[in-house]
Amino acid sequence: MKVLIIEKDKTVRQSLSYFIERLRNCEVFLASSKEEGISFFKIIPFDIVLCGDRLPDGDGLEVLKGWTKAKPRLISVLMTAHSDEQLRQEAEKAGIRGYLEKPFDLKQLEEAMGIGSSELRVRSSELGILGK
């Protein structure tokens, strides 16, 4: 499984990568901006994309909308630090499969990614940066 994480916060990117890399058959790619994420997406067939909503060079929601439309089987997850019901509804309407408000815990992440708890390889306490 190929996973792309697009997130401006380096610590969050690395923590998510640490967690996901411990899942079976996961190869993780990291991007800190919209353009970097687009570069990866053009050449690699991703199964899952986790994307922050506010990127240094654009809107994560718009990125995921386009990719979800082009690749309906893509598991897309929008991450945000802001509680915004309108944003949640817009993401859902666009077919984005997951919506996570930071800080989130690993159970919320695995549910958004569609991964069962039997696949977890790390304890949630190892990733305190993500929350609970």
CATH architectural grouping:
3-Layer(aba) Sandwich
Distance between the termini: 26 Å
Helix/strand order, N-terminal first:
EHEHEEEHEHEH
**Residue runs with pLDDT of under 50 for 5 or more positions:** 117-132
Fold-level CATH name: Rossmann fold
Largest sheet entry: 5 strands, parallel
What share of residues is helical? 25-40%
CATH homologous superfamily (4th level) name: Response regulator
> What is the CA-based Rg, rounded?
13 Å
Structure description:
This protein has 132 residues and is of the alpha/beta class. The strands form 2 sheets. The protein has a 5-stranded parallel β-sheet, sandwiched between helices. A two-stranded antiparallel sheet has the order 4-5. Strand 1, helix 1 and strand 2 (27-31) form a beta-alpha-beta unit. The protein is built from 5 helices and 7 strands. It has a single domain (2-121), classed as Rossmann fold, CATH 3.40.50. The model is unreliable at 117-132 (pLDDT under 50).
Q: Which structural traits does this protein have?
A:
Rossmann fold, alpha/beta, globular, 5 helices, disordered C terminus, 132 residues, two-stranded antiparallel ribbon, five-stranded parallel sheet
Summarize, please.
The protein is of the alpha/beta class. Helices cover 38% and strands 22% of the residues.
Helix-strand blueprint:
Layout: E1 2-6, H1 10-21, E2 27-31, H2 34-43, E3 48-52, E4 54-55, E5 58-59, H3 60-70, E6 75-80, H4 85-93, E7 98-101, H5 106-113
Parallel strand pairs: 1-2, 1-3, 3-6, 6-7
Antiparallel strand pairs: 4-5
